[in-house]
Design goal:
It is a single chain. The chain has 279 residues and is mainly alpha-helical. The protein contains 14 helices and no strands. Helix 3 packs parallel to helix 5, helix 8 packs antiparallel against helix 9 and helix 11 packs parallel to helix 13. The radius of gyration is 23 Å and the shape is globular.
Length: 279
């Protein structure tokens, strides 16, 4: 259709007696506004700021409930914030709006994998996802499939799925993003050794992000590795001059006693905070 075709009058040769409708400005503005909220949410999401991201994804959906990316990541945020019941409710709404959509079904399975009472439903739900997707899985769906496998106790298969996900990323940036997201998931599961394994690969390639470093520091702390946590903390301070990560780690240390007992890293972080306050 030409740029001005919708302005032609009834009976013209081009429109054959019908009057095409002009685009609805309100609908277009809602889509654009939804995209703006999505972009803002993504900047929070990839920094691990899930509460802030969740608010913006919700606003994106409110403006345009056809914004699939907002639905997908809203679900991830709710799970990261330990709100699996809410995640199930909203994932079901996602399925209602996009019936038969394999990603919507995958979001629902991911949410249900977080609550033991729902895990018996996972095999049937995973079969439906396989049927609807015809074996074509996005990176997000691979990640959610791995989460379901871990929830069902199929740890070897889950780790294999994560490895396939990371290997399939076409860009280094995407591989870093998915590695950090996978590490965050395993951190939440309490699998600190696997967090270390994933993030060490990024450090060797100089690709680890401040958020990834903060996860790794907390994992080493929980493993009782005081010296390693202190070294990573120095690295974080060099790479990211923002104090927010340091304060968040300090709060984590206060609420999670070091398994190794007396800690020198707590003394070091106190010194860092004093320096930050005086800058």
């Amino acid at each position: 259709m030409g740029r001005f075709e919708w302005l032609e009058f009834e009976g013209s040769d081009n429109n054959q007696g019908s009057v095409p409708q002009a685009p609805a400005p309100a609908a277009l503005s809602s889509e654009l506004l939804s995209q703006e909220f999505l972009d803002k949410a993504d900047s929070f999401f990839f920094a691990g700021l899930y509460a802030k991201a969740l608010r913006e994804y919700s606003r994106a959906i409110e403006e345009n409930n056809g914004n699939r990316e907002a639905w997908i990541r809203q679900n991830v945020c709710q799970i990261a914030l330990h709100q699996p019941e809410q995640a199930i409710v909203w994932a079901q709404k996602f399925c209602d709006i996009f019936p038969g959509d394999p990603q919507a079904l995958s979001s629902l399975a991911f949410a249900k994998s977080r609550i033991p009472d729902y895990r018996a439903e996972l095999p049937e739900l995973m079969e439906e996802i396989d049927m609807q997707s015809q074996g074509r899985f996005t990176a997000q769906m691979q990640f959610e499939r791995a989460a379901c496998l871990f929830a069902l106790g199929h740890n070897d298969e889950g780790q294999k799925t994560i490895a396939q996900l990371l290997e399939s990323q076409s860009s280094r940036q995407e591989q870093i993003r998915w590695t950090v997201r996978s590490a965050a998931f395993f951190f939440d599961m309490g699998a600190m050794e696997f967090v270390r394994f994933l993030l060490e690969s990024l450090e060797k390639a100089s690709g680890i992000t401040p958020y990834g470093l903060s996860l790794w520091i907390k994992a080493e702390w929980m493993l009782g590795n005081d010296d390693k946590a202190r070294r990573l903390l120095r690295l974080l301070r060099r790479r990211d001059r923002q104090a927010a990560d340091i304060y968040e780690i300090a709060d984590f240390f206060e609420s999670h006693p070091c398994p190794g007992g007396a800690s020198t890293v707590k003394q070091y972080i106190s010194q860092l905070l004093s320096i930050i306050l005086n800058e």
